[in-house]
Amino acid sequence: MRSGAFEIATEVASVAAAPARVAERAEALLSPIRRVVPFEAARVYLLDMERRAEHSLFFEGYDEKVRSYLDSPHHLDDIELLGLHRSGPPMRLRDLSVPRKRSAPGRST
Length: 109
Prior knowledge:
Elements: H1 2-17, H2 22-36, E1 42-48, E2 53-60, H3 64-70, H4 73-82
Antiparallel strand pairs: 1-2
Helix pairs in contact: 1-2
């Protein structure tokens, strides 16, 4: 397995150093990554939260509806809501301030 990991790391390094456009290298990285982590869909993009902008480099496996959402301002809102734009660990769902359902009179939760 170690030789397989070394082979994949070498392939990733050569793709990253290749004299190709960033989008072409992003797409080429999916092949070695797929050998480690199988997936049916992928997106590689650049994120600039200071400007609230993202730039998709490559999509694979998503339908048009999902792609439309991923390229929308709503996706940026969700990134902020979950804390994925911060340098620290992402926020957990249970940390979100979601209004709690009120119990019926005479019942406790």
